[in-house]
Amino acid sequence: MTALQETSLIPPLGEPRPQPVPVAEETTLPSGLRLVVVPRPGVPLVELRLRVPFAAPNARNAGVHAARGSVLSGAVLLGTQRHDQTGIAQLLQSHGAEMSVSTDADRLLFSTTLLPDGLGPVVGVLAELLTEAGYPADQVDGERDRLAERLAIARSQPGTIARMALAARRFGAHPYAIQLPDAELVSAVRAPALRRLHRERVLPAGSILVLVGDLDPRAATDTVAAALEGWNGKGKAVEAPAVTEQRPAGIELVDRPGAVQSNLRLGGPAPSRTDADLSATRLAAMIYGGYFSSRLVENIRERRGYSYSPRSAVDHQRATSSFLVEADVATEVTGPALLETMYELGRIALAPVTEAELDAARRYILGSMALSTATHAGLASTLSALLGAGLPADWLRTHQRELSAVTVEQVQDAAARYLAPERLTAVVVGDAARVAAELGALAPVTVTGSGTTA
Amino acid sequence: MTAAGTELTLRHPIERFTLDNGLRVVLAPDRSVPVVAVSVYYDVGMRNEPEGRTGFAHLFEHLMFQGSANVAKMEHARLVQAAGGTFNGSTHQDYTNYFEALPAEALERALFLEADRMAAPAITEENLRNQIDVVKEEIRVNVLNRPYGAFPWLQLPEIAFETFANTHDGYGSFVDLESSTVDDATDFFSRYYAPGNAVLCIGGDLDVAETEKLVRRWFDPVPARDVPPLPPTGEPSPTSVRSAVVEDALAPAPALALGWRVPDPVGDFDTYLGTVLLAEVLSEGDASRLERRLIHGDRIAIAQSSYVGLFGDPFDVRDATLLTTQVHHPAGVPAEKVMAAVHEEIGRIAQDGVDADELRRVQARIEAQLLQQADSILGRTLSFAAAELVHGRAELAGELAARLAAVTPGAVQVAARGLDPGTAAVLELRPAGGAR
C-alpha cells in the first residue's frame, strides 16, 4: 500500500527528446596532422585541443623522458623567434585565449578556448610554438627550478602519494609506473635537451587537432591548413609499449606518520575501449562505487560514515585500462573500511546485481555522457581523448548502443573477471603505527617509506 | 567584446514570478540541447551561523540529502541519477544551494524532489549522527590531512575581519559539529528554509507556461513561513595592518596571502567591477603584472593568484569581502621580499594606471571565461540564481561581460589605490617539521 502510494507521487519521466548529433569534419593535412572540426550551436567561442603523441620510447629512459616532458610543457611558452613569453601571452589574451600545455605518459596536449574572430591569430601563435619555440637557456633554468618546487608541493599531497605508489606497484618498470617525474632528473634538464626533444617528438605525424564551437568547418580547415603548413617535421609517432600487470599479493602500506586519514587505493586491469566487455565492466564499476547511488557509497558513507567520497571508475590510457577504487577514511576505521570495500567487491563478483541497479546505472552513464559532451569544451576534450586512443569520432554512439544492450548476466561475468578483490593491487597511505596491525588481519602488509623521494 | 555579452543576454531571456508562499521563481529557457537544470538557493550561509554552531550551515546542507516526507534515505540520489541526471549542493558564505542537471524529460521529478525537501526534510538523530561523521571526513580530506588545506580561506578571514560572522571557520570545529542536536537542525530549518527565503531557478530545455504550471503544482503546497531579516555582514574598513603567522606541519614550502577589503559587491557594484578587473590585471596568465614580476622577472615565487570573493566567485558574495593575493614561494625567499614586490606592483597601477590595450586584452579574456561558464546549462543556471538572490536581478549574470567590457582604465586605477599596504591583512604560512 505505502509503496504504491509513494510510487504514484513520484512524477514519471517524460519522453526523451533527441540529442543533437554533432558532425565532425575530418581532414588529414599533407604533414600527417589530422584535423577534426565540429561546428556546434552554443556560446560564441571555439575550443582548441592539439594532441601530440608523447610516450617514452622505452622503459629504460622513461624517467628522463618524463622529466624533460614536464619541463618542456612549461618551457615551450617561454618564447619564439618572433615573440617573447609576454608577447605570446598578450597575443593569445587579446582573443580571449590562454594556452595551457600539459604532458602525461601518452601525450602532450595544447589546449585553449578563444573568441571566434581569433581563430587565425591563435592558430598562428600555435604554429609559432610548434615550429619556432626557442627554449631560451636562462628562462628554461627558471622554469625547471619552479617545476621542482611545484613537484615537491604535489608530492606532499596524500592523494598524489597514493596514486604514485599504486602505479609503481602495478606497472613495475613500465613508463606508466611514473606518475610524477623524479626531482633529480628534473634538476638535470637543460635547454639543449628540450630543443632536441621538441625536434624529435613534437611532430605532425600521429597528432590530432580538434576544434569545436562557433565556426565554419571549411573556413576553419583552410585557416588551420595555411597556418600550420610549416609544421612538417618528419618522424613517426611513438606510443607506449604493452603493459604487464605485476599483480603483487598483499597490501603495500606507505607510512605517513601522524596522518589523520588513510587513503585506500585498489587497482587492476579493465577492458580497453575496443573490448566487447567494456560496457558491462563500466556498468559493474558504476553499481559498485561509480556514483552516489552505488553500493560502496551507501555502505561506507551513508550507513557507516567512514568516508566522505568513496568512488570507483574505469580509466583508460593508450596501452592499458584500469579499474580503480579510492576511499579516504578516518585513521581509526581503516581496517573496517577496507573490509567493507573488499566485501562489496566480493559481493558484486559473486552474486548478480538487480535489474533496477542495472537500469539506474545505465541511465546514469548515458545521461552523464550526454551532459559532459553538451558544451564546446566537454565535447572537444572527449573527442581529443577518443581520437587519440585510435577510435573513430562516432565511437560514443556505438558505445551508447552497447551499453543499452548489456544484461545482468554480462555485468556479473564482467564483475567476476575485473572487480574480484583477488584481481586487484592494494595500496594504503596512512599512519603505519596505528593501522598496520588491523590491515594485517585482512592481508599480508608490507610497510614502505614515505611516497616522496629524499 | 560588448557584442557577445549583449548577445548572451538576448539569447537567454528571463521569466520570473513569485508564489503566494513567497518563493521567487526564475526561468531561463534555452532549447538548444535537451538538458534542464534545476536549482534552489536558500538565503542562508556560513555567515548566518550562531556562535557555538560553526559549520552548521554546511552540516545542514548534508541533512537535506537524507530524504524527506515522501523520499526515503538514498532515494533522492537514486531518483535523480536513475533519470540520467547529476546533483549536488554547496554551502557558501551567503547562501546554500541545491541543484540537478537532467535530461529534459526529468524536469518534473526534480521539482518534486526539491519541493518535498523544502516542505519536510528527514531530520532524525540517526541521519544527523551519520552526517556529522561524513562531514568530519570531508574536513579531514580537504583541510586536516593535506598541506595548505586551510590556506588561506579559513585562516585569512580570522585576521582580515572583526565580527564572528566574518571571522569564524565555516567548515566548523569538531566540538561544535559533534554537539549539534536534532533540535538545532529543526530550528535552523524552520528559521532559514522558508520558501520566502529561497530562489528557484530553472534553466535549459523548458516550455515557460508548462514549467510555471509544474512549479505551482509542487511548490504551492509548501506553507509560507516568516522570512528572517537579512543580517548585516558589512564592517567598517580597517585602518591598520593585521598580521598572523600559521605553521603547517604538512607543507613543504612557505606561502603568503594578502587580503584587502574591497568596495561593497552589491551596493557599490560599479566601483567593485574595477576591483574585479584589477585582480585579473594582476594575476591572470603569463601577461599579468604579478606573473611577470614575481615568477618570471624576480623569480621569487613558484605560483601566484589573485581573486575577489573568498571562494573565488566575485559575483555571489555580499559585503564584506576581500581581494586576496596568494603566493607560494621557495623557502629561501623571505616573505617580506615577496610582499614588497606585490605592494610595489599594485602601487605602480595606483600611480600610473593601466594601459588601455592591456585592459582590453584582460577584458577579452574574462569575456571568454564568462562565456565558457555560460556554455554549460547548469553553470549558467547557477549564475542566474546567484545573481537573483544576491543582486536581486538574474539578468545581471548575462550582462557581466558587457558590464566588465565598459570598465575604464581609470576605474582600475581607483581600485588599485584601494589596496593600501597600510590596511592589508597579511598571513604567512610556514612549513613546520618538514613532514611530507
Task: Provide a quick synopsis of the model.
The complex is a heterodimer of chains A (454) and B (436). Chain A is built from 17 helices and 12 strands.
Features:
heterodimer; A: 454 residues; alpha+beta; Cytochrome Bc1 Complex, Chain A, domain 1; 17 helices; globular; disordered N terminus; B: 436 residues; 2 domains; five-stranded mixed β-sheet; 11 strands; 17% strand
Could you explain how this protein is built, in words?
The complex is a heterodimer of chains A (454) and B (436). Chain A is an alpha+beta fold and 454 residues long. Chain A folds into two domains: 25-227, 2-Layer Sandwich (Cytochrome Bc1 Complex, Chain A, domain 1); 251-448, Cytochrome Bc1 Complex, Chain A, domain 1, CATH 3.30.830. Chain A is 45% helix and 17% strand. Chain A has 17 helices and twelve strands. Chain A has helices at 2-9, 62-75, 85-93, 119-132, 137-155, 158-171, 183-187, 191-201, 217-227, 278-290, 295-303, 334-350, 355-372, 376-388, 395-405, 408-418, 432-440, and strands at 25-28, 34-39, 46-53, 100-103, 107-114, 208-213, 251-255, 261-269, 311-316, 321-330, 425-430, 445-448. In chain A, the strands form two sheets. A six-stranded mixed sheet of chain A has the order 1-2-6-3-5-4, sandwiched between helices. Chain A has a six-stranded mixed sheet with strand order 9-10-8-11-7-12, sandwiched between helices. In chain A, a hairpin with a 5-residue loop joins strand 1 and strand 2 (34-39). In chain A, helix 10 (278-290) packs across helix 16 and helix 12 crosses helix 16. Chain A starts with a helix and ends in a 6-residue tail after the last strand. Chain B is of the alpha+beta class and 436 residues long. Chain B folds into two domains: 12-219, Metalloenzyme, LuxS/M16 peptidase-like (Cytochrome Bc1 Complex, Chain A, domain 1, 2-Layer Sandwich), CATH 3.30.830.10; 242-431, 2-Layer Sandwich (Cytochrome Bc1 Complex, Chain A, domain 1), CATH 3.30.830.10. Helices cover 44% and strands 17% of the residues of chain B. Chain B has helices at residues 2-11, 56-63, 75-81, 107-119, 125-144, 156-160, 164-167, 174-178, 182-192, 208-219, 269-283, 289-297, 335-352, 356-375, 377-391, 395-405, 409-418, and strands at 15-18, 24-29, 35-42, 86-91, 96-103, 198-204, 242-248, 255-261, 303-308, 322-328, 425-431. In chain B, the strands form two sheets. Chain B has a six-stranded mixed sheet with strand order 1-2-6-3-5-4, sandwiched between helices. Chain B has a five-stranded mixed sheet with strand order 7-11-8-10-9. In chain B, a hairpin with a 5-residue loop joins strand 1 and strand 2. In chain B, helix 2 crosses helix 5 (125-144), helix 12 packs antiparallel against helix 13 and helix 15 (377-391) packs across helix 16. The model of chain B is unreliable at 1-6 (pLDDT under 50). Classes of the chains: A alpha+beta (454), B alpha+beta (436).
